[in-house]
Structure formats: structure tokens, C-alpha cells
Amino acid sequence: MSFVDQFKQLNWDDISLSIYSKTSADVERALSKNKRDLEDFKALISPAAEPYLERMAQLSYAATRKRFGNTVGLYVPLYLSNLCANACTYCGFSMENRIKRRTLSKDEILAEVEAIKAMKFDSVLLVTGEHETKVGMNYFREMLPIIKPHFNYLAMEVQPLEQDQYAELKTLGLDAVMVYQETYHPSTYASHHLRGNKTDFYRRLDTPDRLAKAGIDKIGIGALIGLEEWRADCFYVAAHLDYLERTYWQTRYSISFPRLRPCKGALQPKSVMTDKQLVQLICAYRLLNPEVELSLSTRESAHFRDNMLPLGVTSMSAASKTQLEDMQWKMLSLSSSR
Predict the structure, then answer these.
(1) Which of 67, 209, 249, 257 has the fewest other C-beta atoms within 10 Å?
(2) What pTM was estimated for this model as a whole?
């Protein structure tokens, strides 16, 4: 059994209709509860909940302070390689993009580690494109042992691996893995993932199960907001989280919510989420689950990040930036921003 089995019992259109059918009475009922379920979550992300945003924010603030106090964790992304064997419509690392490709050597990685430690960070997220032959297990076996001794917490955002591979990386110091489904709508997923292993929707969907079975301490999930109608996609994230927590209760979880922004000459979002709607979503996740970590990225402005800190966010990426240049993410070590 895995989340794939439960996923196949869900119907996107029915879920979307249910969300948009929620009324103010449903929202008030959800807000009055001490413990909320997925039906309550539908109400809290529905259009009917928008007039209740201030009350949601107050409750979210209280729940966050009660569980996490005033603590916010900061981590630094360390880009190891922009090699990728996938063709994805929205990604600057896509194999079809004509960009300079590089993979960091040991010496280059150690130089990056030294720079990050000089800034007093103790948590790092290793990021690569998805290229299992050139940036796969052999590379990870070589690089993790030289990185882990310098950091208390080591996370990765790389291509999906097998359960035994995750278990092996855990012995080398891996603490957390972020793996985002991008969208939970299979046909939309297929329209954006054109070549490579990432075309396999269900293998990616099964990845958090493999991670939990391998004993990884924390798993990060989420959707790329904008590829599909955001409310339905974010409900699927909540349903995925609910399944994981019930099935693998020993594991910790985090949710991220990167937004695909409108950009001239680039992929346009199918569903545009406003700042106010993102606040609504973050509060809804916190009210559904007081324990889950909520992570905000540098895709958002400093002003927005500062204002969201008290309302539910518990971790943020830091000391890095994304630059819009042909929709490419700049590799931290290969840019001149440091």
C-alpha cells in the first residue's frame, strides 16, 4: 500500500466542486473547531473563507506560537549541479534549455561550504538537476561525507531514488528530502513533463512512501502553485500529508508553496494566486495541522516573508536569491551574487 492507492480513489473534479461549494457556515464551523479535518480544510481554502482572513490569521498565529514559539529555522540552498535529463516546461534546468552546465567538484563544494559556514548557518539543502548517471548515487556517495561534517542538518532536493538508496544516504548523514509533486493532476502533469524519468507521475507520487520506509527524518512535499487550479492542488497536498502522518507517524513533515509567476515570454500560470490567497493558504495549513513545518522560499519578497513569519511559517531559505533570466535559477556557486 502507498498513497498511490488512496490517490486513485480521489476525483479532481469532485474535490474542486466541493471546495467551491463551501459556504460561510462551513467556514465558521471549521474555525470553531479545536481539531480540523480535510473537509474543514476545503472550507478554509475556499472563496467563502476570504472574508474570514483576519480571524484565520489570529488563530494561525496562536497555533504557531503554541507549538513553535518564536523559532524560525533558516537553511541555505547549495546548488551542486544544473545537469538534468528531464524536459519540463517551467524549469530553467530543463535539458532543452541551452545553458552552461556544470557540476561542482570536491574542491568547489568545500569552498561553498566554507562560505556558508562563515555566515554561521548550520542547515543546508543540497540541490541538483535530475541526472541519475552523472549526478546520481555515485556522486552523492562521494560528496555527502565531505559536506555532512560541517552541518548539523543536511537535506536534499534531487531526483527520486529507491528506498534502499535513501537508506544508504541516511547512513552518510542525510536528514531530510524535499520532493514536490509539482501538480497532482495527471494530465496536466503530463503536459509539463515531456521527457525523462520525471514523466512517471506515479513513481514520483510514491517517493514520500519510499522515504518514510527508509527512515528519513523529515520529508518535504508540495505543489508548484500555478500549474493547475491552486485550491484543488493544495487540497491534494493536504490529503497526502494526512496519509503520510497516519501511516508513518515517526517521520516529520514540511510543506512548501512556491508560486509560478506570470512572466513575459515564459510559461504563464494556469491559476494565479494573489498574496492574500497565499496568506489564506498558509493559515489554512496551520489550522489543519499545528505540527507540520511550513517553509517559505526566496521566491517571495522580503516584505511578504517578514509579514508571514508570525502567521504559520517555521522555516525559510536564506542567503540566496532567484534571478529571472530566461526563467533560469542561478546556481549559487556559479553566480556573481556572493
Answers:
(1) 249
(2) 0.92
